[in-house]
Design a protein that fits this description.
alpha/beta, Rossmann fold, 3 domains, 7-stranded mixed sheet, 23 helices, metal-binding, NAD, oxidoreductase, NAD(P)-bd_dom_sf
Length: 565
């Protein structure tokens, strides 16, 4: 836990009470109340942070639905950052689903109807000519370490939402990674929407035109990225919820010129890699030994594929061609195979994974999942399709028939869209499957009567640490080696390595500690490979990372007109 600091603040009276960064509410001391002109503005009793959290939690419990709880917490964040983050940290498991997946998707889908107060920076296509002016108005006088941006085309589970500030991701960076919230900047890149419901909604708060595409879109995004590079050269730029046609393309375009990270591509890939590394540790095999089917080759599926392939190449010293041959990808057009080329149905980025039709001589047209499993005899089956129940009993039993401990990761969110219920996967493999899911699921019973804890393959187990490590090391770019180092550190913390019947990933309750370790590994790798721009050694990393973290505690204030504002 962090210790108190004494800081100088230039705000007084109503100004400090309406600043979420500096407001303490009833926790202002009697001395501070006098110095900052707060006598008469607050009730008599001076409360502790513990008392404030108890009161806020009592109020929160009075909201019956998660969307109403989400709204209450948004209001609390707008009033008092320390109280907001302190409350969340005390009830982490309970409240993460309220502020993040899945409730945040519902909140974003109703963004225009729930809108009360602006948050972050809104850059809109019709105002492209004033983009730099608008950008500078937000960052001048600030020390910004993290920029989280989204064009809201592919919000998890609900698709194109046009406009919806990407603040939830920044919150997780602070809550779990310890990044100072005053140094984060959520950015909405409003380039329109193709969501007919939003276009016809008289209360829609975004730009009510169809999405900009092509050259105009690229120039708009590039202008924004160049502003980040120019004015915030040491920041981490996090891309969030970009559509399948843009996510990988933009990441590839900018990752060598700035510290850029796409959680849907790299974060999903990294946490899945960590879970797979843990599973491989249980089976006493290597990554290169695996035969992997990816069911759902969209942004997340392709991101996972690329992450796993690159890790194979580095960890097991095999060529890209050999590593690519370990994967069979299925998208909405079926198995990615050579005959799809004639129909122009192979999306950009999939070329390395196209299978020859000769692998399936008895198949005409599309190859079904069951046929693929029987032919390929995979060791790993990963689902990112949102096709609920796609991994049928026949499919799972076919996997088990050719693999003693099949690795099954139904990762689709929310839980109603999961490819197979973990209980079924466990039962159909007689307790031998190694399972990780994208949503939280209860433990299942093994034939021996022991509970098998289902690992939650949650990006938040790794991306806050990846971000913190990149920020602290002031790296020029986020490299594959840095992400691999973070995934390896997360995998090393797997409970399954001590007990093969335990969870493949640490409990989410431990995510702050886990992400600290990830950040340390990432920063160490950045220094080792020479991409860091700090002048300290690997031996100093642990203390430097810990010292950089922000904690939700009240500092002591002294009034000074030229102090912080």
């Amino acid at each position: 836990m962090g210790s108190k600091n004494v800081i100088k603040v230039a705000l007084k009276g109503e100004a400090i009470l309406t600043s979420p960064r500096f407001n303490k509410g009833t926790a202002f001391s009697q001395k501070e109340r006098k110095e900052f002109g707060l006598n008469g503005r607050l009730p008599f009793e001076v409360a502790t942070l513990d008392q404030q959290c108890d009161r806020a939690n009592e109020q929160l419990k009075g909201r019956e639905s998660n969307i109403r709880k989400n709204s209450f917490l948004q209001s609390l964040k707008a009033q008092n950052w320390v109280l907001y983050y302190s409350l969340l940290s005390r009830h982490l498991r309970e409240l993460i689903p309220v502020i993040y997946t899945p409730t945040e998707a519902e909140a974003i889908s109703n963004y225009s109807h729930l809108f009360r107060r602006s948050e972050g920076l809104y850059l809109t296509f019709p105002h492209v000519d004033t983009m730099e002016e608008d950008f500078l108005a937000q960052i001048t006088g600030r020390d910004v370490d993290l920029v989280v941006c989204s064009d809201a085309e592919a919000i998890l589970g609900i698709g194109d939402q046009g406009v919806g500030i990407s603040s939830a991701k920044a919150v997780i960076y602070t809550l779990i990674g310890g990044i100072d919230p005053s140094k984060t900047l959520p950015v909405t890149l409003d380039v329109g929407t193709n969501n007919e419901e939003l276009l016809n909604d008289p209360l829609y708060v975004g730009w009510p035109e169809r999405r900009v595409r092509g050259k105009d879109y690229d120039e708009f995004i590039d202008k924004f990225v160049q502003l980040v590079r120019k004015h915030l050269p040491h920041s981490l730029l996090h891309f969030e919820d970009f559509g399948v046609t843009n996510a990988n393309r933009l990441l590839a375009r900018y990752r060598d010129t700035h510290a850029v990270f796409n959680d849907d591509v790299q974060g999903t890939g990294a946490v899945t890699l960590a879970a797979l590394m843990a599973a491989v540790g249980v089976t006493k095999s290597t990554l290169a030994d695996q035969r992997i089917i990816i069911y759902g080759a969209g942004t997340a599926g392709l991101g996972i594929t690329l992450q796993l392939r690159d890790a194979m190449m580095k960890a097991d010293s095999i060529s890209q061609k050999e590593a690519s041959s370990k994967f069979w990808l299925i998208d909405k057009h079926g198995l990615i195979k050579e005959s799809l080329r004639a129909q122009d149905l192979i999306r950009e980025g999939l070329d390395d994974f196209v299978r020859p039709d000769s692998e399936f001589p008895n198949s005409e047209g599309e190859v079904g999942l069951l046929e693929l499993v029987k032919t390929v005899k995979p060791t790993v089956l990963i689902g990112t399709s949102t096709h609920g129940g796609a991994f049928t009993e026949e499919v799972i039993k076919a996997m088990k028939a050719n693999c003693h401990r099949p690795i099954i990761f139904p990762l689709s969110n929310p839980s109603r869209l999961v490819e197979v219920d973990p209980k079924d996967a466990n039962d159909w493999t007689e307790g031998m499957a190694l399972i990780a899911t994208g949503s939280p699921f209860p433990a299942v019973k093994n034939p021996n009567g022991k509970d098998y804890i289902i690992a939650e393959c949650n990006n938040a187990l790794i991306y806050p640490g990846l971000g913190l490590g990149a920020i602290v090391s002031k790296t020029r770019k986020v490299t594959d080696e840095m992400i691999l180092a973070g995934a390896q550190r997360l995998a090393s913390l797997s409970p399954a390595l001590n007990d093969p019947d335990d969870a493949l990933l640490p409990d989410f309750e431990d995510s702050p500690t886990v992400n600290l370790e990830v950040a340390i590994a990432v920063a160490e790798q950045a220094i080792e490979q020479g991409s860091a721009t700090v002048d300290w050694s690997k031996e100093e990393v642990r203390e430097r990372v810990k010292a950089s973290q922000w904690y939700p505690v009240y500092d002591d204030y002294v009034y000074e007109p030229e102090g912080e504002t």
